[in-house]
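Reposting from the mailing list since nobody answered there.

I have sequence plus structure tokens for a pair of proteins and want to know whether others read the tokens the same way I do. The first protein:
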Amino acid sequence: MERLFNLDPQLIHDAVLLALAVFVMFTFLSYLLFNPARDFLKKRQDKIKADIDAAADSKKEARKLKEDYDARIRGIQAEAEEILGQARQKALNNEAKIIADAKEEAARIIARAHAQAELERKAAADDMKKEMIAIASLMAEKAVAGAVDAKVQDTMVESTLKEIGENTWRN
């Protein structure tokens, strides 16, 4: 037999047999080992992808919740402003009512004070008239008792009037 590339036929035979054995062994191991490893990696890849999708969904849901939360906060702030505005308005109304009541009470007090002063003035005037009547009766007694003539009586009346004052008799 002739040698191929100066190689021994036994060596070529062993090399072909070795290559065939490696191919069969590779196919067999691929079936037994590589396919389960590929399946394991595929399952792991699918799980990672599912986790990433779940994380993205959670992120979208969190954004939606944040937007809802922000909207609620804005609504609460608007409601708080409305409540504060109503409270301010109520306070202003109460203030106006209190001021009006105080003014009415002050007017009543002033009216009572004026009425009381008028009553006191009238009482003083009545007392003064009673005094004048008493003085006039005393003068009359003196006039009658002493048989005073008209000239003396006129001077007595004039002096009494000057003491009391002419304005008193005019009221």
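The second protein, same order (residues first, tokens after):
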Amino acid sequence: MKELDNIHCDFSAIDGLEKEFNAILSIRHDGKTTSFLMKKAWPAWRKGKATALLFRQVNDVNEYSIRYYLNLMKEFIDRPLNVEMRGIGGVGAVLLDKRPLFYCIPLGAKEATLKKTSFPDVAYEYFDEYEINPINKEKYLPNEYGRFQTLHSTMLKLSPDIKFYMTSNPYSAYNPLFSGWGVKTSALRLGTMQKGKNWAVWFKRIHPDLLAKIRETDPFFDENSAYSRWAFSGSFANDRNSHVMPTMPGGYRLAIRFVFEGQKYSAFESTDYEDEERPLYYVKKGADDGKRRVTYAFDFADLVTNAVLATKDDRDRFHNLKRAMKGQDVAFDSIETEEAFKMIYDYL
């Protein structure tokens, strides 16, 4: 049987911070998934505790996705892994020797299901490959962070010492978990660790010996690709065309306010249409001045004070902003605001 080496991902650095929520970003082939399974999930099972594997969509929970994790483990375990799978295709369980090894939980399940999903003796929640790649037309779930909060708080009732781990390739500085935790994404730098009250994010640098090995053995490794440039520079592959301007310049007036998934956004319009050097619109998070100005919502859950539900009749009001978005003539105060507005765009 193979043994774990010392050049692939090691969780000890982030574990030393003793946080409830832990995230590791690093390049492909760093061994994040295998290290979690063999250094955390497997020892936990041997001590009588299970791991909750989190997925995004209900149809992601299937026999093939479960076999992926089991096959990674088989290389390092000197015994058969003859498991029994129950309820796969929804909230399911994987039993080994009649004891739970994994619980499999999709965040896309109905909220009522997430509120009733709690199991005893769970050591870890683990979401592998958390970040989406929008190039492949993938999307996060509506209110994904709220769904995660619902599940985690439910799990805590029977497993109060549970810890959450997320591992991912670094496609973007934005994702719903970072936004919900309050991660300062503008400060994410390759090789650094950022921490908050109950969370830690490690933007991990790959071991140089492993990188040399990948160069030699991976026929698809292209050092000139956007993703590979991240490995050397630390820039996020899908954020290179972002339009973030942390400070709004003068010469803008409040045009439209929105509330989306519980957050308020203000869109400002330039007062100088002739100035082609400045974006036509600037969007920032938060409700700015203009108490009498109506705030538009797209869901009944977002109908706060002074908010109205946007209808087809309001589309003319949004026309200029939508056209500016198409022409990339909009700046944002943060990558989180930009990503949120990409979702709002579908409603305009």
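Reply #1 (J.P.):
I read it the same way you do. The chain has a mean pLDDT of 88.
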